[in-house]
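User: Could you go from structure to sequence for me? I need the amino acid at each position, not a summary. Structure tokens:
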């Protein structure tokens, strides 16, 4: 989760003799996290949109309850459509994604050729998915901001939060 990322950065800073730089970096990251989570505090469950985070298109792969992706989604005020699966990574059938009707879709495609939003929208039978109908699809341009637990993860977190709650996070 995000707190563990900050702890790890501080630990690496101490071990490498760069504790001051690590403390400064993590303080900035924590301020950015706090700024977003403060805006999301008090959201009722029905205000947390269902989010589908696609890591791999074939087979459809997303993060389960034990994944870092799940922690990013939930901290950003969303509900991971695979958050009820007690695994790191989950393969879903297209029917499962359709049945869970995500309101927000995030495409990352870690290590595969990145599909465009338009290609995603034209998947056979997916036209009724709320994320597609309401054009709530985000394309992660740098996968390292959401799948690597380092300093740039704050950029991925902010991207997800803005996509999940564009009315609250500017």
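Assistant: Here is the amino acid at each position, in order:
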């Amino acid at each position: 989760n995000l707190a563990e990322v900050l702890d790890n950065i501080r630990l690496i800073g101490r071990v490498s003799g760069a504790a001051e730089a690590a403390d400064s970096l993590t303080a900035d990251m924590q301020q950015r996290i706090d700024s977003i989570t403060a805006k999301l505090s008090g959201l009722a469950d029905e205000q947390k949109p269902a989010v589908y985070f696609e890591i791999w298109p074939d087979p459809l792969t997303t993060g389960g309850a034990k994944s870092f992706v799940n922690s990013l989604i939930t901290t950003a005020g969303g509900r991971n459509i695979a958050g009820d699966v007690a695994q790191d990574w989950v393969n879903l059938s297209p029917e499962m994604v359709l049945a869970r009707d995500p309101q927000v879709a995030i495409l990352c495609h870690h290590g595969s050729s990145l599909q465009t939003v338009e290609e995603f929208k034209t998947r056979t039978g997916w036209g009724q998915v709320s994320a597609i109908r309401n054009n709530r699809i985000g394309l992660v341009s740098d996968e390292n901001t959401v799948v690597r637990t380092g300093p740039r993860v704050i950029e991925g977190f902010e991207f997800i939060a803005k996509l999940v709650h564009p009315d609250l996070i500017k």
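One structural detail worth keeping in mind: The mean pLDDT is 92.
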